[in-house]
Amino acid sequence: MVSTVAGEPRAPGSEWTRLQLSVVLICSIINALDGMDVLIVSFIAPSLARDWSVSMEGLGIIFSAGLAGMMAGSMLLAPLADIFGRRPMILVGLILITVAMIASGLVATPVAFALTRVIAGLGIGTLLASVAAMTSEFAPPDHRTFAIGIFQGGYPFGAVATGFAAIWAIPHYGWQATLIAAGVISGLLLPVVFALLPESPDYLERRQPANALPRLNRIRAQMRLAPFECLPSIEAAARKVRFSRFFERGMWKPTLQLWTSTFLGVGVLYFVLSWIPKLAVEAGLAPEDALYAGTLLNLGGFAGSLTLGWMARRLPVGWLICAFLTASTVFMIIFSLPGTSLPLALVLAMLIGFALQGGFSAFYSLSAMLYPTAIRSSGIGWATGWGRFGAVFGPLIGGYLLSQGHSLLFVFLCYAVPLLISGVLAGLVRRPARHHDG
């Protein structure tokens, strides 16, 4: 039965269903694993450095090892979702994360630890593009941008929860046990995803595995959409996944703008996320207070992601990213000024998270809006991969600058320029008018 509002029929599929809500929720929880993975390492870093005598530059390498794995996963493994299905690749990513997180709590050398970080990063990079694409695909069209905002809000939510848990767990049980517990949590999500997460309807339509039509129509029925009588030819579907489609019919310009924007913006984001406890100490906070700065930063990020997702229903996503990243630059510079009081520093940490992570959250939405469904998972994967490539250098460069004794103001000014360029480029991204979805 078609629902109505003020006597007007509402289009089929324009309202939330139980299946759509569950898919967005599961994808958001999976995205929280990214927040857990990044912040837990920044919290254990002081204990790890003390136990294993790791230098500041060495910590930068450890931070970047996981991000390098994410880059490889996003660019090399995530596109396989367009071939083998998004659901299988999500499960593969979860398995990699679970094994690597547990192993990271059992190894005994910095080199072995860095290797486990690479494997965990591979898992996260493998699944993030797929869950972002699934969120976009299952959300009702009128709520798609907001749904991606909720999905991306999972990242800071996971980081906040992990921050509070780590503050309590590390002193009581040690950093190794804290990592193992994080791996167990990832493992507990596996049966939930296996039982409840459906395959991508777009994948079933294009690749047509066994029983594709009845599987697709069961999903469409749960989304209150009309069933398909038949599927398009496999040859027509296979033609749509060529890498060259990122650059065809005027797509080259927005693709390069998007990739450069994510490279610069995510590099700054992961510098801040990885080093926030150290940055807070440099700003004058006591070490015990600095730990709370990281948690508040991610709490602000959660609010920023939801706010931008809501605003994007009415305003262009690209220019919202530009506005949020510009505001983040201002907050970062104020945070770095000498003599900042504890209350002001904590408020600024939350505002930085609100603007920086809020702006970052919309990169997924911007990618999903730019690329048609046939190459959406690959498009998000490559955009995310370039972002992770920038993220590898963000913590490394930050570690080098801090080790050289530069002031926090100087360090933040070094990151202000790429962050502003990232925002401007995001504001320029547009899909060419002649490039249709499909």
Give structural notes.
α4 packs antiparallel against α7 (175-196) and α6 packs antiparallel against α7. The chain has helices spanning 18-52, 56-77, 81-84, 86-104, 110-138, 144-173, 175-196, 201-207, 212-222, 234-238, 252-282, 287-311, 317-336, 342-370, 376-403, 408-428; strands at 4-5, 8-9. Mean pLDDT is 83; it is low at 1-12. The longest helix has 35 residues, at 18-52. With 438 residues, the chain is mainly α. A two-stranded antiparallel sheet has the order 1-2. The chain is 77% helix and 1% strand.
CA(first)-CA(last) distance? 28 Å
Describe the main β-sheet briefly.
Answer: 2 strands, antiparallel
Query: What ranges have pLDDT less than 50 throughout 5 or more consecutive residues?
Result: 1-12
Spatial arrangement of strands, main beta sheet: 1-2
The string of secondary-structure elements, in order, is EEHHHHHHHHHHHHHHHH
In DSSP terms, counting alpha (H) and pi (I) runs of 4 or more, how many helices? 16
What share of residues are in beta strands? Answer: under 5%
Mean of residue pLDDT values = 83
Number of strands: 2
Oligomeric category: single chain
**Percentage of residues assigned to helices:** over 70%
